[in-house]
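Case study.
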Amino acid sequence: MPSESKSWPGKALHWLLGAGLLLTFDFAGRALAASLSLSVPGPVLGMLLLLLVLMLYGRVPYGLGMVAEQILRLLVLILLPATVGIYFLRDLSGGDWFALIAAMVIGTLISLTLTALLLNHLIQRRARRRGDHGQ
Amino acid sequence: MGSEMRNLWLQWLSQLEQVASGFLQPLSAAHPLVILPLNIAGFWLALKIYRRTGTPILHPVVGGSLLVFAGLLLLGVDFAGYQQGSGLLYLLLGPAVVALAIPLKQNLVMVRRAGWPLMLGLLVGAVLAPLVAVVIALLLGGSHMVLVALATKSVTTPVALALTEQMNGIHSLAAGVVAFTGIVGAVFGPSLMRLLGVHDERVTGFTLGINAHAIGTVRALEVSALCGAFSALAMGLCGALTALLLPVLTSA
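After joint prediction, the assembly is written out as follows.
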């Protein structure tokens, strides 16, 4: 991480640059998705694009790191409108509600368990194998 | 290509204009100057409560949304009005998803070291998550609408919003399913991992990202940056994968 001792106009400039980069890659992702008529949402493409560019660049620019940390800390707030939407779902029959909630709660717990156990098994096996080769 | 870029730009501008004009409307209960502070207050209060109690069931995702919902009931605002008032937050959704690339980059070495087991886990998890849910709903006699909404389960909220626009109709239901699934995963995920004896933060993060998307990633970021990075990676890849597969499957 770069030094903390940046004067505030410099910091503000870096912040604006970082925010501009996020907007640019959001836009670039959307443009790419639209022009190739992909059904992958633009922002997700934008995230992968930014990752690629950062890998080529070698490090995270100061301002970008600053803005990203701030926006990620507010992620819950940004997602609130989507979350609040749950409580407004009324146009379902009683049986549908039951099936839906059971599927979401039990289904998520089952798939969490299965994914975690599979990943854990695979990663540990690989680690053991590497260990055998004397790493 | 050029005209598409222009369209996109205009679309973005009109969205911005909508948000701006929302502020210029006469003051009402659904005015952004009421709704935005409500959102912020709900989030802030929920965060305080969560930090004091420390129980995952009161995670800000749950507490915040409940507080905001209670506020909306008191104000007598419906969901459409709330959505309009929250326009500014919708605008931030895209940049926030893009920002997930930063923890990803910062932990890339660890991601690389985990290698192909991750990709295999991703593939299995991305198929498994919606499949398990759809099978359960099918056994319980859920309607077609419920089944389609559940099929979008393993994509992240913004992704689901984009996807269901293409598959039309069940917009709010699918968004609700994704958000609720995220909450279940975020609330119970880390304790479940401990119960299963999984102590690897990479596994916890990746599992949360596949099964609980953005909300799971919020939780994973609380565990550690490494955990958050794996969750963001899983979310991004899983979203891309299902977003590619789902329209093909549903049109067949």
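Observations recorded in class. Residues 221 and 228 of chain B are 4 Å apart (CA to CA). Chain B touches chain A through 117 residues (CB under 8 Å). We will return to this complex in the next lecture.
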